Backbone:
């Protein structure tokens, strides 16, 4: 049995060939209405299929937000399963934004859901929360290593409330965010061209004293509706800008429902990001 190509290597290739943009798929009720769709399973399916059709062959990463599918129960999850499969078949890497975090067998079950190739929700990567202790993530980290998938760990998030936990200090004086970043740097040590274990670092932060040199991808949400722009990224990420994966949802999705509109918005943002990170 051949060893799967690591997520970090696949992501590096996708970013170098398609650009660094990560396009979110967030079918919340207000956006469905903006598209002239009902907030029901038919609207969800139409919305999701349109986004995948428009972008999966063009952007490096598609990031469905699981909660917006889960709210429709099993039928919503069926739409998500198809979206993940269709997007991956079209060449996009799928980062499932689930932000799971638990311990022991429960975390192992989450890992099996998103990081086991036998699962219908198997994705190229998944977001996880480390604030039950970094060690609680071990089932997901190990599953990702086995399947060639990736994991993105919440470190410095874009919401203002995040600092309440992430800026707290460990016994050795490091912020909890830095503790998580240091763990990720250790996981990625020696990986080339890029490690498979990434951190979520909000683009709205402006600046940070944290050491972001984790030899892995840095997912940067917050561009567009939350107020950050591609031009803000170099000041925040400095020498790590080449590893930044800027994430945009509403800034692209609001250009729908036409496929052409979505593609134009994604292309414009890809160009802006390329210029900012050059």
Residues:
């Amino acid at each position: 049995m051949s060893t799967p190509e690591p997520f970090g290597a696949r992501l590096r290739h996708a970013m170098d060939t398609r650009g660094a943009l990560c396009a979110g798929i967030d079918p919340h009720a207000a956006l469905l209405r903006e598209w002239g769709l009902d907030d029901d399973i038919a609207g969800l399916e139409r919305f999701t299929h349109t986004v995948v059709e428009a972008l999966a062959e063009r952007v490096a990463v598609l990031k469905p937000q699981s909660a917006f599918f889960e709210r429709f129960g099993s039928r919503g999850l069926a739409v998500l399963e198809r979206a993940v499969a269709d997007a991956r078949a079209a060449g996009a890497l799928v980062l499932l934004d689930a932000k799971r975090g638990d311990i022991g067998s429960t975390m192992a079950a989450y890992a099996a859901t998103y990081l086991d190739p036998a699962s219908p929700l198997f994705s190229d990567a998944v977001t996880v929360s480390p604030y039950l202790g970094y060690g609680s993530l071990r089932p997901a980290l190990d599953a990702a290593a086995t399947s060639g998938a990736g994991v993105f760990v919440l470190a410095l998030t874009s919401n203002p409330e995040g600092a309440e936990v992430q800026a707290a200090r460990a016994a050795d004086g490091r912020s909890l965010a830095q503790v998580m970043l240091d763990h990720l740097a250790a996981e990625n040590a020696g990986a080339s061209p890029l490690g498979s274990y990434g951190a979520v670092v909000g683009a709205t932060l402006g600046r940070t004293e944290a050491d972001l040199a984790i030899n892995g991808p840095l997912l940067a949400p917050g561009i567009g509706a939350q107020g950050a722009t591609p031009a803000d990224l170099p000041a925040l990420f400095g020498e790590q800008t080449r590893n930044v994966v800027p994430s945009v949802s509403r800034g692209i999705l609001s250009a729908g429902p036409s496929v052409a509109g979505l593609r134009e918005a994604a292309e414009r943002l890809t160009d802006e990001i390329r210029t900012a990170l050059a």
Notes: The chain has a mean pLDDT of 96. Residues 259-277 form the longest helix (19 residues). The radius of gyration is 18 Å.
